Amino acid sequence: MANKISKSVYPWLILVLLLVPISAAGMKNDLFPEILREEAVARVYELGKVSDADGYLERTFLSPASIKAGNLIRRWMEDAGLTTWVDGLGNVHGRVQPPNASKKALLIGSHLDTVVDAGMFDGVLGIISAISAFKVLNVTGRLNNLRHPVEVIAFSDEEGVRFQSTFLGSAAIAGVLPVSTLQILDKSGLTVQNVLKENLIDTTEENLNLLKYEPESVLGYIEVHIEQGPVLESVGLPLAVVKGIAGQTRLKITVRGSQGHAGTVPMSMRQDPMVAAAELIVSLERLCKEPQNFISNDGPDGHCNAFSIKSLSGSLVCTVGEISTWPSASNVIPGQVVFTVDLRTIDDVGRDAIISELSNQMHSICDRRSVSCLMERKHDANAVKCDGGLNSQLKSAAYSALKRMTGEDIGDVPVLMSGAGHDAMAMSHLTNVGMLFVRCRGGISHSPEEHVLDDDVWAAGLAIQAFLETYL
Question: What is the DSSP string of 57-101?
Answer without folding.
Answer: ----TT-HHHHHHHHHHHHHHHHTT-EEEE-TTS-EEEEE--TT-
